[in-house]
Design brief:
The complex is a heterotetramer, with 2 copies of chain A and 2 copies of chain B.
Chain A (H helix, E strand, L loop, with lengths): L6 H17 L2 H9 L5 H14 L17 H13 L7 H14 L2 H12 L5 E4 L15 E5 L2 E9 L9 E7 L10 E7 L5 E6 L8 E12 L3 E2 L5 H14 L4 H17 L6 H29 L7 H24 L11 H5 L10 H9 L10 H11 L5
Chain B lengths: L6 H14 L9 H9 L17 H13 L7 H13 L4 H7 L5 E4 L10 E3 L4 E10 L6 E5 L3 E6 L5 E7 L5 E11 L5 E4 H40 L1 E2 L2 E2 L4 H27 L7 H26 L10 H13 L4 H10 L3
Parallel strand pairs in B: 1-4
Antiparallel strand pairs in B: 2-3, 3-7, 4-5, 5-8, 6-7, 9-10
The chains are: A alpha+beta, B alpha+beta.
Chain lengths: 394, 343, 394, 343
């Protein structure tokens, strides 16, 4: 169907498609396509390729190293690269802290941090959640008190994706314990090599290690590493959450997964099986609806309106649809899915040549895809947001 | 991208809504059909070269309002007829007579026929077939059939065309139609071969855009009734819209309505291109129907007892959506077709 | 499967089955089986037959005209008669007001009202809901003030099933407006022939007229018609609601509807259609689960424990399962279901001989079955009850 | 009615639970298997005349606790073997050696075999077939096959029995098994004709009772974890169990758990009679699996991020339930069988 793309957009789509086809390393593509977990070097290798092309931070202003991409270009870039099997473009630097720095940072902060993101030299991670502050971020208790030109930070952050690979962390810390929960929070940039930081791995149910708990024990952070005003961190955090959600509908990924589903089903002679066809039709319909909802939102953004709760809606549906495709793919494998123990994912076999574990990626992904309905503001929180802001209910 | 309405399209939407507002047109009436025709809405189905002012999107705007206001008049079959005629011969005089309301013609697709009954016979000199529960055919003078082999224009007054009409679940007149070796003259075969296939494709796209738009209008209206109701209805000391369990269900209804609108837009946009994949049209119809039905059932449930009464248009909405699901060519037909396609 | 029925229960089941097969009039059975709405005389004719056998109020104590049935006998009676196509045994007298009268009523009230229920001579209806008090019964505003030996009742009751056929109504009325909402309510028995009562029909979405709004304009009710204490009506009302819910899992009905579904599908050559078989398997599994949940609850009751939230669970699931069977039956009819306009249900055709409307009962029932998830405490209210009383959540 | 547990049954339930409590038995270990055998639990699978103390209900009690405590040892195939042997010859010496743990035997049903591969050949003098992802077969000395034509006792050490073992999604050892023209002596054919059919029926009932009981124990445990968690976890100034939207979802989980228990009871009761309809057994397995999986997914979702970690046994529960769904003979197999039955 035709969404009325402009000639420029069509040309850009072709450019991205050709570039990805030419440059994406086959080994990385294979891992992504099969669902096997990526290592640090896999992410970095692809992002280095993008950095060379200047496409790491395409939607940033040119003055900061971006390409001034329109919203539709960002969408096309994401859809095409993801569909082709490129790794998830890690958002912590590019999508999260980068825009915060160029919007609210000092000139010194911009000069120090933005180039490392654009060149893919610095690996960032995000320090928001805490053991007692999950959906309710305002209750966080990691404290920072002033000591001369420094803050002394003590506490811990949890669910910190890829902290064990990262160079820097951006973190929300409490700088005023007497203020109301959302006041009294500051936004700090912290070098993970600072003394007093320890990182403890958390094993996920699909067997991978991507989550961590990061402990801060009297960690000294220069006051110059604070973004904006002291105690105004909530403002920057909300700005960031807005950016996070816009990107969350993963059309390219859903389409890629549907294709894998179809080919796995065909290999197993299910192409005419009515139960399979009925499930496939339902999932394809869900993806069609998600795609056109995304396009409508993109059209609104292109028309100059900032996305509002529509972003929550895409998060809600996108995470659910991808989750269902991932599960049904395992169902289509049937008993072949059973020949793999996810808890030994990283230790033993990350080796697709073993016949018995050739479907390990599908199994691992089924389990991992329980996460997107939880992270980035759980789907329950998204429903609260939509209820309040789109429906005008409490 | 051009997904938002043009100025002309917005004006059309406004004018249709203005006409509907306050008008009780939920019963079929000859006078309302005339009025609709006089307002020129049927022209939304064809382009300027054929004497209209529209295309897929304009027709969808009209159909969305038809659904949202539960207008009883069945415009979709006429839009399908117009689409077939425009594709076959944009200058046909019949088109302007249909747009003006002088003549009613209904378009028929192969998948609306009872199993395997639709057959071209005797080297394309006659046609037979059976159809059930067709809308608006009781008013029609012509039937326009889009078959993959040929596009046909039949007269309802032909002695071998048999019609039986009755009131349907949605309160509209339905007709069972039997074509019993209806002879085909040269004039009644509008096109053959690739041209016929193109006309059939065009008819399918129009049909999909019309049904999904009607679902979209209906679902949006049923949702809005419910949202208004929960804000005003008080129980246990607060509006029931203050209860989180209901809020989350309203959110799921809201998302369903948005997705019906998205699927309807996809179908309407398909009407502007030649190569829309059939399976995507089937999915759009099936998906719009499933989601709209969910909204209708939740609308009744969240209204409570009053939702079960004819004092509100919720039951009528549910009955109407059930018809769009079960009518030959509707959502169930499309789901069956998806089970037969292998890519 | 075998639920371990006692020999006595098995013998009773056979007795009920044989009796129903012999005595249930074919015309009534046909209406029930096809789903067409029943008229007053249909209900009364069957209930007269039961009354003659002494089975109208089998679970009542013998001293009040019952049979002292055990819980399993009541269950067996309900399952067998319903499965065989007997009309719904109207609960307003037998299940609702009767037990209230013999538990809380005066000797005079018992003597006056119980025999009419047991003999099926008096038709009762229930006056609980009001326009502004649906799920929230305590907010009702129909008022009764004392005038000598009478109350003067003014206000209205809504959703009063079959009030247009009834002789008496039992109603909750407010006798003290200063008290807290649940206090200040009294439970009155009101003769529907009293001056000042008007009954206004409400048309339902399936076209039938079974609901009404009952208006009270200065209706004089003798104080002797009050049950128990003034302002203590809430106690009796809650007692009654407990009785209402025990009966709500409709195994016999669900099984009867599944059988009709199978035979309609076979007539249409769907018996091997995979979509049909998958839906049928799902619905049959739901009924199997519902049946054994009901049996477990019955076993608990037989063991002397009063049913608690289990009754809410049966209401929740029973209403949902029956609703889904009713809808899927229409789907199996396909276009044949469209040849009938429910809004003309009562006016024109209640005539199964018309070929076009031979499926009218199925269509009418599909629409009517949207109600059971709403009435008797909506399923949302049932979830609140289970959450509070079974899960210990707020 | 006798649906509640007898005093002996309650004592069994208590003793099994006592053994499990505090024991970490979520990894397969030879020593735990021995301990289970020494405690005599395998005797719950057969009646006193066969040297046991149980029947369908007693076995279900053990299996429910196996599920609820996520015990890694796979008892179900052994219970199926015992059921077949008891039906064939209640006095067979092998039964007591299995109960005591001296010997492991696993029971196999035709529906566990890969499509159409299970065949009796050469006038019942040999058997061939392929099986995937069998539990506990790596420990077995004997295989007990219930076929409609004959009941077979095979030795795993036969040169034509090929086994390949590996770790499965649920962390348990799984085996692929190939029977390649395994010769049948007179001693290896335990019964034929109607006796074989009766043994197969008995095996199916036992299999259904075991799987549904395991689902029941798992679902109840996962629900209880979640109920405890929402009462203790605070967000936005209150326990998250105070939020009505979550309450209603917990209620639906609770109802699902109750229904799994009901279906498991139906299957266990079927083990006490001869004529349990096969389709009801298939429905019980499919329904228990669907409901338990729903509970497992909701348990993870309502726990939030911590539900995604191996710090809690939720992921393990989901993996285990997914195995019960996909393993040959499990819920998916039963759903396919229901599509083939026509009454």
């Amino acid at each position: 169907m035709d969404a009325g793309w402009s000639p420029e957009d069509r040309a850009f789509r072709k450019e991205v498609r050709d570039f990805t086809q030419e440059k994406l390393p086959a080994a990385i593509r294979d891992k992504v396509m099969s669902g096997r977990p990526l290592e640090r070097q896999d992410y970095m290798r692809w992002q280095d390729i993008l950095a060379q092309k200047g496409w790491i931070a395409g939607f940033w202003p040119k003055c900061h190293g971006g390409q001034d991409w329109t919203a539709s270009q960002s969408y096309i870039f994401q859809e095409e690269t993801t569909y082709a099997g490129a790794p998830w473009l890690l958002p912590f630097g590019v999508n999260y802290v980068g825009p915060v720095i160029y919007t609210y940072g000092t000139e010194e902060q911009k000069a120090r941090h933005l180039p490392g993101i654009v060149s893919n030299e610095v690996f960032w991670c995000q320090g928001y959640s805490e053991p007692n502050a999950g959906s309710d971020l305002a209750r966080l208790s990691t404290r920072a008190h002033r000591d001369g030109d420094s803050y002394i930070v003590t506490g811990s952050k949890i669910w910190t994706s890829m902290a064990h690979w990262a160079d820097w962390i951006f973190a929300l810390v409490r700088t005023d314990s007497d203020a109301k929960p959302q006041a009294g929070i500051s936004f700090l940039l912290i070098d993970l090599n600072s003394p007093g930081i320890t990182i403890q791995p958390i094993q996920s149910i699909e067997g991978a290690h991507h989550l961590n708990q990061v402990f801060f024990d009297n960690v000294r952070v220069p006051v110059d590493n604070r973004i904006g005003e002291e105690n105004a961190g909530w403002t920057y955090a909300k700005f960031l959450l807005g950016h996070e959600r816009v990107l969350s509908a993963e059309i390219g990924k859903a389409k890629r997964m549907l294709e894998r589903l179809r080919s796995l089903a065909e290999e197993r002679n299910l192409a005419r099986d009515p139960r399979y066809l009925e499930n496939l039709a339902r999932l394809e319909t869900d993806v069609l609806a998600l795609e056109w909802t995304t396009l409508r939102m993109l059209d609104t953004v292109m028309g100059g309106t900032a996305p509002g709760v529509e972003a929550s809606m895409l998060k809600l549906r996108g995470s659910t649809v991808v989750q269902e495709i991932a599960e049904y793919t395992v169902d289509v494998l049937g008993h072949e899915a059973l020949a793999f123990d996810p808890l030994f994912l990283e230790e033993t076999i990350n080796d697709p040549s073993s016949e018995l574990s050739r479907n390990m990626g599908v199994v691992s992904e089924f389990l991992f895809q329980r996460a997107p309905t939880i992270w980035g503001g759980s789907n329950e929180i998204q429903r609260n947001i939509i209820s309040k802001h789109a429906l005008g209910l409490g | 991208m051009k997904l938002t309405l043009t100025q002309e399209q917005s004006m059309l939407a406004d004018s249709v809504t203005r006409f509907m507002t306050g008008k009780n047109a939920t019963g079929e009436e000859e006078s309302i059909w005339r009025e609709v025709a006089e307002l020129g809405w049927l022209g939304a189905g064809v382009g300027e070269s054929a004497g209209g002012f529209g295309g897929g999107r304009e027709m969808a705007i009209v159909m969305e309002s038809v659904g949202g206001n539960e207008l009883a008049e069945a415009l979709a079959p006429v839009f399908v007829a117009l689409a077939i005629l425009e594709k076959s011969d944009p200058e046909a005089a019949l088109i302007s007579r249909i747009i003006s309301g002088d003549v009613v013609a209904c378009g028929l697709l192969p998948e609306m026929a009872a199993d395997d009954s639709l057959q071209l016979e005797d080297e394309m000199t006659s046609v037979s077939g059976q159809f059930h529960a067709l809308a608006n055919v009781h008013r029609a003078r012509h039937l326009v059939l889009a078959l993959p082999e040929a596009t046909l224009l039949l007269s309802v007054s032909d002695a071998n065309v048999h019609l039986r009409s009755y009131r349907g679940m949605d309160g509209k007149t339905k007709s069972d139609l039997k074509l019993d070796h209806v002879a085909l003259s040269e004039a009644s075969v509008l096109s053959k071969g690739p041209d016929a296939v193109a006309a059939l494709n065009r008819a399918r796209v129009t049909h999909a855009a019309a049904i999904t738009a009607e679902c979209s209008g209906l679902a949006a209206a049923l949702f809005q009734y419910t949202l208004d109701y929960v804000q005003q209805r008080r129980q246990f000391g607060q509006p029931i819209g203050g209860f989180q369990a209901l809020q989350h269900r309203l959110v799921d209804m809201f998302v369903a309505v948005e997705e019906v609108q998205s699927l309807a837009l996809a179908a309407a946009r398909a009407a502007t291109i030649e190569d829309a994949p059939e399976s995507a049209l089937s999915r759009a119809i099936a998906g719009a129907s499933d989601r709209a039905l969910h909204v209708a059932k939740e609308a009744i449930q969240l209204h409570g007892a009053v939702g079960m009464t004819e004092d509100l248009p919720l039951g009528a909405g549910l009955r109407r959506l059930k018809v769009l699901q079960l009518v030959p060519g509707g959502a169930e037909t499309q789901k069956r077709r998806l089970l037969q396609s292998f890519n």
